[in-house]
Write a structure and sequence with these properties.
By secondary structure, this protein is α+β, with helices and mostly antiparallel strands. It contains 13 helices and 16 strands. The strands form 3 sheets. It has a 7-stranded antiparallel sheet. The protein has a 5-stranded antiparallel sheet with strand order 5-6-9-7-8. A hairpin with a 2-residue loop joins strand 5 and strand 6. Helix 1 runs antiparallel to helix 3, helix 7 crosses helix 13 and helix 8 crosses helix 11. It starts with a helix and ends in a 13-residue tail after the last helix.
Length: 448
């Protein structure tokens, strides 16, 4: 029997098992429909599953896990679909599609978030209550995956990382059982999820803290690239003494006004102090673009969805312990060589994000640091030049970077994954062996 024939037989078994548990329209096997359902944000991901289970409930997810195991099919999970490296798709496997599970229920200072909900779903639900969550900068990203992978965002100084706000997680394990992981129940699983991502099971619901930051002062102040060096040196001085309520992301991108160094300040403190805080950022140079005002955090995040639309991507990241003069040199070298469709985004972990011990959760980066996101994007055609720029940028930053790095932006096979969890590596692998001994789940890279 050929491998293709065997896969077809296994897919047929899985589909039959699923159809005993789910309505037939939720079990998809026709190639055109499967292809449409398995399209990711990064169109460079070409793999296709053999079966898609369009899950609506935790019981549906259990049925999908059991069917995949019984039929010996590889399993993958799709929620937001922003997994650029493609682990959400296993070629010839069974895809657990969570995108119908997007419910968000707000209860005071916490929210129950279904596994397929996006960042926008959470912010939109929390907004009428005057609340916000620990979120990133793009609304279409899956909220659970963002949270479990670390969770960098503009409120980081006052509420910490996404993992710091996780209260519990409902997880379908490899044997089909449902576990509720929190500090008292399955504490090792709860520890590992916070930074280890979806490598231990399928997260069907999380509880997360909310905070009274629905309205913030935020926006963009951009400077011509020839001002970048003094602006970044000024940024370093500014953030050394700034209130934790002021977050100032920065980066490089192309605009109609030319290539710029942008800053994205967010003030989450007393509204009456906002003007003075934003003035400190404005005074770093002579702005060529400025759009800052009091607005809903949800609107700020929604506005960036169109900045990085579905298309061809190659991403990378490096974690820097600080913005030294050498790191500025490396950043500017890449910014000056950057293709027009690409961008550099730099998150600053400070304040509340640095209050936990490195061993408190699987994610170990707890000293103040910078995460440089390297975003390579190109139109249809050959992406060799963009890919080369991403690799060059990684090399330029390597001399200034910490070992390991942010696994959420690593591809499988990246050798840096071996060091990504530092002192937590042994415990992470022990937990993986306990909860998923057969390696059913493969999300963000972890050490082997």
């Amino acid at each position: 029997m050929t491998r293709a024939s065997q896969t077809g037989m296994e897919a047929g078994i899985a589909a039959a098992l699923l159809q005993e548990q789910l309505p037939s329209e939720l079990v998809v096997t026709e190639p055109p429909a499967v292809g449409a359902l398995s399209r990711l944000w990064n169109t460079q991901v070409k793999g296709r599953p053999a079966v898609v289970a369009r899950c609506r409930t935790t019981a549906d997810v259990q049925a999908a896990v059991n069917a995949a195991r019984s039929a010996h099919l590889p399993l993958s999970v799709l929620a937001g679909g922003h997994d650029w490296a493609g682990s959400a798709i296993r070629d010839g496997g069974l895809l657990v599609d969570l995108r119908s599970m997007r419910q968000v229920a707000v209860d005071g200072a916490e929210a129950r978030v279904a596994g397929g909900a996006t960042v926008s779903d959470v912010l939109d639900a929390a907004r009428p209550h005057g609340q916000a969550a620990a979120v990133g900068t793009v609304g279409s990203v899956g909220f659970a995956a963002l949270t479990l992978g670390g969770g960098y965002g503009t409120l980081i100084g006052v509420i910490g990382l996404g993992i710091d706000n996780l209260l519990s997680a409902e997880v379908v394990l490899a044997d089909g059982r449902v576990a509720t992981a929190d500090p008292e129940q399955d504490p090792d699983l709860f520890w590992a999820l916070r930074g280890g991502g979806g490598n231990f099971g399928i997260v069907t619901q999380i509880r997360t803290r909310l905070h009274p930051y629905a309205m913030v002062t935020s926006g963009m102040i951009a400077f011509a690239l020839d001002q970048a060096r003094p602006v970044l040196q000024g940024w370093r001085d500014l953030t050394a003494s700034a209130d934790d309520a002021l977050d100032v992301m920065f980066g490089a991108m192309s605009t109609p006004a030319g290539r710029v160094l942008f800053t994205a300040p967010t003030w989450a403190g007393e509204p009456g102090e906002a003007a003075a805080q934003i003035t400190r950022v404005r005074m770093l140079g002579e702005p060529v673009l400025e759009d800052v005002g009091q607005r809903a955090l949800a609107d700020t995040v929604h506005a960036l969805d169109s900045t990085f639309p579905r298309g061809n991507y190659r991403l990378g990241a490096r974690i820097l312990p600080g913005l030294t003069d050498g790191a500025i040199d490396a950043f500017l070298r890449s910014a000056e060589a950057m293709p027009g469709t690409c961008a550099l985004n730099v998150h600053h972990a400070h304040g509340a994000a640095t209050q936990a011990l490195a061993s408190e959760a699987a994610y170990p980066y707890r000293d103040e640091h910078l995460v440089v996101e390297i975003i390579g994007r190109w139109a249809d055609g050959d992406g060799a030049a963009v890919s080369a720029w991403v690799q060059d940028t990684e090399r330029h930053l390597d001399a200034h970077a910490l070992p390991g790095g942010w696994a959420n932006l690593m591809a499988h096979g990246d050798p840096r994954a071996q060091d990504a969890y530092g002192i937590n590596t042994s415990r992470l692998l022990t937990t993986k062996l306990h909860y998923d001994p057969d390696g059913v789940f493969s999300a963000i890279p972890i050490p082997e």
